[in-house]
Amino acid sequence: MECDICLEDFNQVERVPKMVSCGHTVCLLCLQQSDRRQCPTCRRVFDVPPDALPNNYQLLRQLERPDSPRAPRGWCSDCRAAAAPRCWDEAHDVLPEKRALKRHLQGAMLRAAGQLEDLQDHCQGEQAVQALTLLTTESWCLNLQGGGHDLTGNVRNTEDPLTQLMWLLVAAKAALTKSRVEARSPSPAAARPPLAAPGAAPPETRYPPPATATPPPAAAPGQAPPEVREMDVAEVSPTGPSERQQDKAALLAEAPGVTQVVRLFCHNDPAWSLQLLQRAAPTLERLRVLYPLEPHLRAVHAMPRLRRLDVEGGAPLFAQPPELPAVGALSSGHAGLQWLRVQYLPRATTQSLLRAHGSTLEELELLVGTAGRGEWPRICDDLHSLLQQSGLRALKRLVLRRWSSGHRAAACSEQRAQVLRVLPGADVLCVECDDVELGQV
């Protein structure tokens, strides 16, 4: 998608596509560089300034698509987000990404050079221990939350000096707190499930059989409720089948009786992560799981006591979207979800999950877009219909999570009005339009 005059790619900043009255589309920069107000293609005259010409919104929508091979959008300093078409129309402060980054970092490199040499001397006591932990651990999962954004990634430790300096800065500036399950060696009597060895068949061909454990009985009247046991596996779960095998075996041994598992990454070692879910299933009440495959989703769906679930899917599920059975078809003792957050699950999978828990689900956070041209979940023309067909009889609160770069207030307002007509008893909120306090697993 390029301008026919300068042969440069259209973008949403200085080369925004403008429609001339003759019907041709030319980038704004080409129109501004001409002394005459005429179409450079057919020479037809127009009588308004180039920036007052209408944008070609069909091209702009194509640039916004996540699968667009070339979609430079620019950065809007007013919105503090990737620029959207309205940012240009409303004369926001928009710059190409590289220029915006240069502006924000102006002079920082020179000022930081002198400080970096003294940085290690400032890390003392607990900060020095944290820096050494960050530097010597094989890999780390990062989860950054702020301003309505939730960014997750992995960093593997190497001899790269920039990575080493990054960990030093994190230890010195981030005020870290430690919260994780210690990976202890299992007792000799503890059975160690087989783990994938280097050179073994791909993990997806080595799934263990489904667990058949029966949930323990609830506490009798007058007895204290079971102890809450949390397992945070963010340090171990992003590693491959041949890595951290001793730690993984220890976590499997500790899984029975756990009531909360957070930050379980399933895609790097699918067989081990599925075993962990199956071992924790009888007692698990809260779960945050990322990039599950179909066997993981089915294991989660069958957990009898699960009440709060945060699930973030990925591309493999979209190839053949799984549909989950109704809760009643699993077990008469299934509690059903009360709180659910869904991100990047296929539409059919999302709807089957909502249907299964329609009678118990009270709060739903859903990452979904508004009407337009594109694919689910960035685009959704009929959210009200999807929710109505899901039978959400107990829903009290719906939070719509958005992509800041493509959020349009008018389309959002229309979508929410449609949803309110089919869910009249629920609060329907948007993270971009409302002051929303997001839930936690």
Structure report:
The chain is α/β, with parallel strands linked by helices. The protein folds into four domains: 1-67, 2-Layer Sandwich (Herpes Virus-1); 74-122, no CATH class; 124-144 and 155-172, no CATH class; 230-430, Alpha-Beta Horseshoe (Leucine-rich repeat, LRR (right-handed beta-alpha superhelix)), CATH 3.80.10. 30% of the residues lie in helices and 15% in strands. The chain has helices at residues 28-33, 57-64, 85-89, 97-104, 108-122, 126-136, 161-173, 245-254, 270-280, 294-301, 315-319, 347-356, 383-389, 409-422; strands at 17-19, 25-27, 75-76, 81-82, 94-95, 139-146, 149-156, 230-232, 260-265, 286-290, 308-312, 339-343, 363-367, 397-401, 427-430. It has an eight-stranded parallel β-sheet with strand order 8-9-10-11-12-13-14-15, covered by helices on one side. A three-stranded antiparallel β-sheet has the order 4-3-5. A two-stranded antiparallel ribbon has the order 1-2. Helix 9 links the parallel strand 9 (260-265) and strand 10 (286-290). Helix 5 (108-122) crosses helix 7 and helix 13 (383-389) packs parallel to helix 14. The longest helix is centred in the N-terminal third of the chain and has 15 residues, at 108-122. The chain is globular and about 75 Å long.
Give the tags.
Herpes Virus-1, 4 domains, 441 residues, globular, alpha/beta, eight-stranded parallel beta sheet
